[in-house]
Amino acid sequence: MGNQLRELAAAGQSIWLDNIRRSMFASGELQTLIDQGLRGMTSNPTIFEKAIGAGTDYDEQLRTLAAERDTAAIFEALAIRDIRSACDLFRPVWDQTHGLDGYVSLEVSPTLANDTQGTIDAAARLWRAVDRPNVMIKIPGTVEGGPAIKATIAAGINVNVTLLFSVDRYETAANAYIEGLEERVKRGEPIDAIASVASFFVSRIDTAIDKQLHAKIEAGAHLEHLLGKAAVANTKLAYQRFLKLFGGERFAALRAKGARVQRPLWASTSTKNPAYADLMYVEPLVGRDTVNTVPPNTLDAILDHGTVRPETVLEDLGRARATIEALGKEQISLYDVTEQLVADGVTSFADSFNAMLAAIGSKLEKLRSDAPPKVSLALGAAQPAADAALDRLGTLDILKKLWLADPSPWSSDPAHVAIVTHALGWVEIPQQTHAQSSDLREFAQSCAKRFDHVVVLGMGGSSLAPDVLRRTFGKTPGYPALHVLDSTDPQQVRALDESLDIARSLFIVASKSGTTTEPDAFYRYFFQRVQQTVGAQNAGDHFVAVTDPGTKLEAEAKQAKFARVFTNDPNIGGRYSALSYFGMVPAALAGYDVTAILDRAINAMHANARTVVPHDAPGVRFGAAIGALAKQGRDKLTILTHPSVRAFGAWAEQLIAESTGKSGIGIVPVEGEPLGEVGAYGEDRVFVYVGATLPGDDDAGARACELEAAGHPVIRLAMSDAYDIGEQFYLWEIATAAAGAVLGIDAFDQPNVQESKDNTKRLLAEYAQKGGFGEPEPRVTSSDAQIFPLAGSRAAALGSDLQSAVAAIADQIRAGDYVAFNAYVPMNGVNEDALRRIRAVVRDAHKVATTVGFGPRFLHSTGQLHKGGSNEGVFFQFTYDAPFEIAIPGMVGFRTLERAQALGDFESLDKRERRGIRVHFPGEVQAGLAAFAAAIEHAVGARA
Ligand SMILES: O=C(CO)[C@@H](O)[C@H](O)[C@H](O)[C@H](O)COP(=O)(O)O
Ligand SMILES: O=C[C@H](O)COP(=O)(O)O
């Protein structure tokens, strides 16, 4: 294939693609064409009919729109998503050509072709809905379309005038553009950022005229020489009119103010008569300031054997005029033909449009019959409160505010307003990351050749989504295994290190702020390991960074020559970043289908779009319910999961805890708690079952039914397969934002996570100064544990051993509390099992919710709630003396760091007079946890 697209561009003609299909975004097909020099895209109702009417590309999104009854609105939602995807892919072309090319056209409904005001309104609505500077709204050049073109241009909207067949109608369209600009000038508005094309239809002229010629030839006339000549002739004459109109004085005044010419766009340029050359409507029509939009087969022909000669549109003008005259002499009226073609064109687009709406209708009917709702609420007595919360969110216009980054539903305090205004980038991020999916895929493919392991080095919001994806999707054949390091425990660091082949490992340093201590420590440690293994020169090539623009990490990564630095949208907080580079770079590197995950997220985005009424938006309904339930005291949001998405809870836990646990209130997420008997759950619970429609009977699903029957509120979130995790990420984010508004808190800050980060830094500085932490004396010391009480338990009679101390704290547990086990120990299967057993014992005995967090990981998650939320927590903090230290270049070792984090956490809880104890195991963790389990079982037994 040659360089024809670039040669054409050099000759002043841009080639656009006259086609759109959802699969071309995900497959990378469109990106490849753009890379070859394609510079724009057009769509029309027939193109969409073909794309949407056939195949299953749109079924996913249709499923999320199943409640919507208006098929035209559904079509718009489908089309807008494609147009946005295309606009995002063409955006670099738009940027590089300074707004000359990179446009994607979307046509107003052809049913409005004879309705001026209807067209003006529809154009404005579509422009706002697509919300991209490189979209063009297509308006037919009918009699009624003329004033609509002028008004739409005057409104500052890019216009593609379509269905132009005659030179005179073309001139009307061009004048409408000029008049629209003039109106703007009169109003003192800028005109330099407006683009327009006039779509002049070519091949259809030959089809119509040849038909008449054939009739005459059959009747004995010798007119063969005129066959297949009219279309190109007519088009060349239209180009002459263009030169005149835009070369004249009237336009010169506008040009002086920065106006661009309205470029003629040659449409309908595939050859219809197979006897003719396949590029007969391309090669002779090359000219400056033109576009030719071609369907895929014509594009293939150009790339395969097109020859490019500049300015062919200026050649043979005499012959062109002679052709038109000759036709006139034969009583073939170009005027009649072109008028008929406009009418036929409108009818044919309207027919396509109606056929497409019918196809959408029947698809929906089928989907409605087999798709359950995405969110089902069985709230029992709490339903009226949830309804009232939803009404309030409706009054607040919550979705519109989210989409417009208006902070008013969360706070009016200036400090919070500043935070929220810069925290809502996640609302649109699925679409933006989607536009990068082919880049991510290509990068991943190149890495897969060099690496067997990919390791995310990050904390909380920067690592939980990759961890959940890793545990959900596992290892992809042909791609590296994905690991996540979010612990400073020396045994855990060593276990990971030993499982890697460092020379074949790629490390992703993931930190939004670029200053968090843990990822910094991980980076220093593994950078040294890589340097030792592959040499200092090559080390950077084993690293990738994901961070905000301008961070210290970005600068270091550039300096150390990292293989890639992905700078994320800075308007996204860590816990809302799953669908940005933070989640999707690791996912792509692990070979997961990022496009599929993002497609599902985009479905959720549409279901919760700015224009959706909150009552119909699944995320808002979910959020209103959990917010209202929390206000009624059902604040223990217990996450039950289908086994195939078991890992999801850890991500949702962070989102909910860190977003809502502040100002002395909050929703307490309970994740990973073993299923209990129905009677083990108190009146403070609400259950959310994730994965409701996934196949197979599972215990969690069955238990959800029993809990509902027993009168507990149960929310079910439907998933059809694991890729719906993308949809879940988004749905929970909307729900959390909505719940925050119901609770009246800022769902986007995390003051107490920052407090922990600061505590750690302070303690480390003290350590450096004094050579130790100056830990207090334990209140109880026995052979298996040392006990340090928090202020809220200092008055309790702890006795003299682990058993008595645990019993004393257990005595402090009240209905409505939650018991948190915060373990600064290695996170591994054995310790997880031990803690699971311990929490079940406490839950069953006290009917209270229990949580488990491994330190320091939970500091970036539930840690916010422990300190910022209500005083309902009873804390058991576990620490131990790791058997070895691991040195980190330029800072204290991992063992010291882990201890600093535990002590800092303890201090914060203590300061807030929380109840509980720190239990320090002097020996092995396993033995310590076993001793603790025995003590708690004893305490429970004594109570019973
Ligand atoms: O109008 C534009 C571009 O502005 C095109 O999408 C235009 O609708 C198409 O080129 C034609 O409808 C295709 O016509 P044809 O090749 O089917 O005769
Ligand atoms: O949840 C986020 C963690 O606190 C990590 O923050 P970071 O991405 O700025 O390193």
Give an overview in words.
This protein is 50% helix and 13% strand. The protein is of the alpha/beta class. It has four domains: 4-204 and 231-313, Alpha-Beta Barrel (TIM Barrel); 372-404 and 610-743, Glucose-6-phosphate isomerase like protein, domain 1 (Rossmann fold, 3-Layer(aba) Sandwich), CATH 3.40.50; 427-598, Glucose-6-phosphate isomerase like protein, domain 1 (Rossmann fold, 3-Layer(aba) Sandwich), CATH 3.40.50; 751-943, Glucose-6-phosphate isomerase like protein, domain 1 (Rossmann fold), CATH 3.40.50.10490. Strands 1-2-3-4-5-6-7-8 form an eight-stranded parallel β-barrel, surrounded by nine helices. It has a six-stranded mixed β-sheet with strand order 19-20-24-23-21-22, sandwiched between helices. Strands 9-18-17-15-16 form a five-stranded mixed β-sheet, sandwiched between helices. The longest helix has 37 residues, at 334-370. The protein is elongated and about 115 Å long. The relative contact order is 0.08. The model has no long low-confidence stretch (mean pLDDT 95). The protein binds D-altro-hept-2-ulose 7-phosphate and glyceraldehyde-3-phosphate (G3H). D-altro-hept-2-ulose 7-phosphate binds at residues 18, 42, 44, 105, 138, 160, 162, 199, 203-204, 265, 267-268, 270, 293.
Which CATH class of the largest domain is shown?
Alpha Beta
Query: How would a textbook summarize the main sheet?
Result: 8 strands, parallel, barrel
Reported CATH architecture of the largest domain: Alpha-Beta Barrel
Could you give the count of β-strands?
Answer: 24
Mean pLDDT: 95
What oligomeric state do these chains adopt?
single chain
Sheet-strand content, in percent, reads 5-15%
User: What separation lies between the terminal Cα atoms?
Assistant: 81 Å
Low-confidence sequence ranges: none
Structural class: alpha/beta
Question: How is the CATH topology of the largest domain named?
Answer: TIM Barrel
Please report the number of helical segments: 36
- Describe the strand arrangement of the main beta sheet, using strand numbers: 1-2-3-4-5-6-7-8
GO molecular function, one term: glucose-6-phosphate isomerase activity
Keywords: Cytoplasm, Gluconeogenesis, Glycolysis, Isomerase, Pentose shunt, Schiff base, Transferase
InterPro entries: Aldolase_TIM, G6P_Isomerase, SIS_dom_sf, SIS_PGI_1, TAL/FSA, Transaldolase_2
Active site: 138
